[in-house]
């Protein structure tokens, strides 16, 4: 990205089958972040680490021209490489991914 390229951030929030959504108000998190100027999409998913969840992420990155990704899910120790691969498979530098442990 050069200094003139628009930031287009995609935020993906995982419910983790209730492990997260039973404690964290996922809708409130979504509502809080979707108003930031550079955030172009906010998607919630039951299991974003699943193949289907990763496919949603890859599709959204490509369709919406996302050039930065934030994944709010369980520990990066568990899934950092999973999401880096998904981002890379969407033709985006995997180091333009940030994980948030919620």
TrEMBL record:
Kindly provide the name given to this protein in its UniProt entry: Disulfide reductase
């Amino acid at each position: 990205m050069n200094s003139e390229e628009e930031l287009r951030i995609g935020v993906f929030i995982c419910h983790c089958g209730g492990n997260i959504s039973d404690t964290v108000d996922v809708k409130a998190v979504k509502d809080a972040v979707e108003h930031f100027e550079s955030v172009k999409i906010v998607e919630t998913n039951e299991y974003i680490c699943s193949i289907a969840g990763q496919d949603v992420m890859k599709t959204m990155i490509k369709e919406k021209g996302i050039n930065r990704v934030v994944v709010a899910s369980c520990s990066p120790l568990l899934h950092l490489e999973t999401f880096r691969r998904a981002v890379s498979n969407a033709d985006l530098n995997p180091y333009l991914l940030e994980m948030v442990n919620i």
